[in-house]
Amino acid sequence: MRLQGWVLWAVLPLLCLAAKRKNMDKFEDYHSQTQSSTPLKLDDAAYDDLTASPRNYSVAVLLTALEARFGCQLCRDFQPEWDLLSKSWVKGDKNGETRILYGTLDFTAGKGTFQRLMLQTAPVILLFPPTSGPNGKPDSQPIRYDFTAGPQSAEQIYAWVNRHLPEGPKPAIRRPPNYVRIVTVTTIILGLMSFFSVAYAYVLPIIQNRNIWAAISLITILLFTSGHMFNHIRKVPYVVGDGKGGISYFAGGFSNQYGMETQVVAAIYGTLSFATIALALKVPRMSDPKKQQAAVFIWGAVMFGMYSFLLSVFRVKNGGYPFHLPPF
Fold first, then answer.
1. Who contacts 293 (Cβ-Cβ below 8 Å, separation ≥6)?
2. Which of 105, 129, 252, 311 has the most beta carbons within 10 angstroms of its beta carbon?
């Protein structure tokens, strides 16, 4: 019995060393596979072997269903992002210093695992932390990531994985150049340059036309002074009932207004502006004195009528305002 005890004490350290060596060899074996193909393509047996305890490394496994017959569009949309994440990580960590492996388990190759985990939806990411070593955790249960917010980018999953890994430098995600976008943007720029070089002689007079810029400025001023942005911010109604079977176009008080009211006020301001411009610029250039006199009376009457209507609207907004102009 004493001899058997001594033999047991002598063999036990060797068994522990062999188990530790096997654990290290497993990581090195899988890590070497990722140099040629990443993420690792897993089946039920490989999944069980890769995630078995004890392990001194982390494992991130994507459980997905890529075949069209399963109808998982989210799986197919996310797969390129998962491939980009794993390839960027392996490329930036060729020596395996972060000690993490990336794998993909498709439903067709891992039906037993899906049934054992009772997964009803896909995709799902499981992150297995190490159970031994300096960063080992006693709880061997994986950390689960569900795609409740729809497709995720590689950067979002990278941040989630990074939060659950030990402190230290991590490889960055490097997206390959989008050559289609580069060619498209270059073609558009060259096309615009060609267009402007040909149309320069025709476009320049339009751009330099003061009347066009004056009209644009006037329309913009009328648009914003009439309360257009107020309507968009407050989501005001267009019109409301007045409680007597009719329609109310103007809201009482200075902190309220309706959509129709904005358009009416903008039309008033526009008419007054056009009348002022006509009296200041157009009427003095008339050569016929009688036509000039008639234009003055007409535009003057328009201005008087519009100001009368504007004051009536102001009295609706402010019931205590005592002044008015006929006929409104």
1. none
2. 105
- Predicted local confidence at residue 2, as pLDDT: 52
Amino acid identity for residue 45 in this structure: A
CA 149 to chain centre: 12
What residues contact 328, with CB distance under 8 A and at least 6 apart? 305, 308, 309, 311, 312
For residue 102, list its beta bridge partners.
60
Helix (H, G, I), strand (E, B) or coil at 291: helix
DSSP state letter for 281: I
Phi, psi of 8 (to 5 degrees): -65, -45
Q: Determine the Cα–Cα distance for residues 266 and 227; give it in Å rounded to an integer.
A: 9
CB 254 within 8 Å of CB 280: no
Residue type at 68 in one-letter notation: A
User: Do residues 60 and 82 make contact, with C-beta atoms less than 8 angstroms apart?
Assistant: no
Residues 6 or more apart in contact with residue 37 via CB below 8 angstroms: none
Spatial separation of the C-alpha atoms in residues 251 and 104, rounded to whole Å: 62
Residue 135 identity (one-letter amino acid): N
Q: For residue 112, give every residue at least 6 positions away whose Cβ sits within 8 Å of its Cβ, in sequence order, or none.
A: 44
- Position 15 scores a pLDDT of 40
Can you name the residues that pair with 145 across neighbouring β-strands? 125
For the segment 202-259, what is each residue's pLDDT rounded down to a tens digit?
Answer: 888 888 898 899 889 988 888 888 888 888 888 889 888 888 888 888 888 777 888 8
The pLDDT of residue 9 is above 50: no
Spatial separation of the C-alpha atoms in residues 133 and 99, rounded to whole Å: 11
For residue 274, what are the contacts with CB-CB under 8 A and spacing of at least 6? none
- Collapse the DSSP code of 78 into the 3-class scheme (helix H, G, I; strand E, B; otherwise coil) and give the result: helix
